Predict the structure.
Amino acid sequence: MDYQLSVNDVHLSFGGLQALNGVSTGVNEGEIFSIIGPNGAGKTCLLNCINRFYRPQKGSIKLEGRDLTRLSPHKIPGLGIARTFQNVELFSHMSVLDNIRLGAHIHLKSGFLTGGIYFGPCRNEEMNLRRHIENEIIDLLEIEQIRKSIVYSLPYGLQKRVELGRALAMQPKILLLDEPATGMNLEETEDMARFILDINEEWGITIVLIEHDMGVVMDISDRVCVLDFGVKIAEGVPEEIRHNEQVIKAYLGEQDLTLSRLG
């Protein structure tokens, strides 16, 4: 099968610590693909390898057939991969709109002269990007009322939306989401799940999701990959993963697995 994103026999270690041990998987174009596992399983390490924050010691990661592991990290966004993080990584003293606009910077192609004069192609280019941000992204994420607000003044749940908006401004083919619902209440989590579904279904963007909320994972994922101590232990549709004893054991432990059978 030809995956849009393929991970082949990836090994990553830090000294004597083996973070990823021969992980292979693949993501189909247009799907929501979740990566789950206990704390320390290697989930974020895998995302860090995909966007080249880390370089694996062995294996390959390919986007539409192109090996990413030999590329410089700054080239990855231009190929169509955007990312959000576990902890909000925004410019806290800038406005919501300015933070989101920064994501579109990689698409500005005007040269030094046209940029300095700011007319013609340069102006048209920026205006088109602004329209995309202001008419589509802000509307999708329902943040019109806070577009001029300074980020540090916003509650955590809204800051997570802004970070998602900045990633969308990069116009990605694949969106890597690292625990987008962490720290949110039930209503905020439901909103985030709805936004992820809309991004996937209406905009056709492939989603690679790390999330500890199993309700969200099982409700919105097309397929799920499970890591434990840097090894892939299962992969399949949510219903298969939900009843996989190896997955249950990884989360609950051998004793609790036995008790769950008795119950």
Remarks:
- The two ends are 40 Å apart (CA to CA).
- DSSP finds eleven helices and ten strands in the chain.
